[in-house]
Amino acid sequence: MKLISVVVPCYNEQEVLPMFYDEIIKVTDGMKKEHPDTEFEFLFINDGSKDRTLEIFRELADKDKRVRYISFSRNFGKESGMYAGLKNCKGDFVVVMDADLQHPPAFLPEMYNYVRSGEFDCATTRRVSRTGESPVRSWFARKFYKIMNKISDTEIVDGAQDFRFMTRQMVDAILDMSEYNRFSKGIFSWVGFRTKYMPYENVERPAGTSSWSFWGLFRYSLEGIMAFSTFPLALSIFCGIISLVIGFVLLVIALIVEFATNSSGALLFILSVIFGIGGVQLGCIGIMGQYLGKTYLEVKNRPVYITGETDEDYRNKKNADK
Ligand code: UDP
Ligand code: MG
What pLDDT shows up at residue 235? Predict the structure, then answer.
């Protein structure tokens, strides 16, 4: 038997939850027919909703014993919801998806095929269009991915989403990253593994509203940059060097003015000292930033490596196939 856990973080989703449940049951029943050795569990996370979300969970749990839920004491954010779900699910395969049907359950059978065959460890969707999104927001989103991929070693695919069908192995690797500030897009990519990206057109929410404001997204993207890059800490070194160079140029000009002309170079000399000292200070702060960056990475306590396969896995698999 193979157990598939469907993890769904929910925040104020009373309007779409019943629709989502009907839809997911339809799709998973179909998958069960195709693969009779497959079981499902549905793990809903109530992220401190202020509406009837929790009551709906209870109703679902009453009528379907595969439904489990965890209800938070307050709103902790979607990242915490996903973490709680991954930590508490029991499946051999795990799906993370939104409740608002923007992650269409219709993708699940195909995703399952990719992961089940052993060809991929993770199947996910990638938005190829941003229809239904304001142009300003799309522009910022594109710029974010561009900057992020320049300054970070972790590649973040533009349009990649938190809609993931993963193996237990990948889920365990994600849970090994126990950092508090979680930026899932980066974490999914950081752990590696073979990922299948399935392109799709953006779908709009059938009901309810997105809980992301523009500023919320902006803060979240800064969070992403801080979590996966220490580049901003190095910025003051560059500023320091530029300031030093300006100071030096000013000093040369001050000397020329003082000795080669009749006017006084005193003012320029003072300016050059200001730039020079400023540059040295910024440079020192930058050096401290480098150490802080290293400390930051140590404190995160990320795994030093993640194993994909060993000879033991290979032999076990070969025996199982026989
Ligand atoms: N969500 C959550 N906690 C939050 C905000 C959102 O669990 O604080 C859930 C929400 O219920 C939904 C998913 O995260 O299932 C995506 O949220 P939303 O649709 O608002 O984001 P968008 O699709 O606009 O990125
Ligand atoms: Mg949504």
Answer: 85
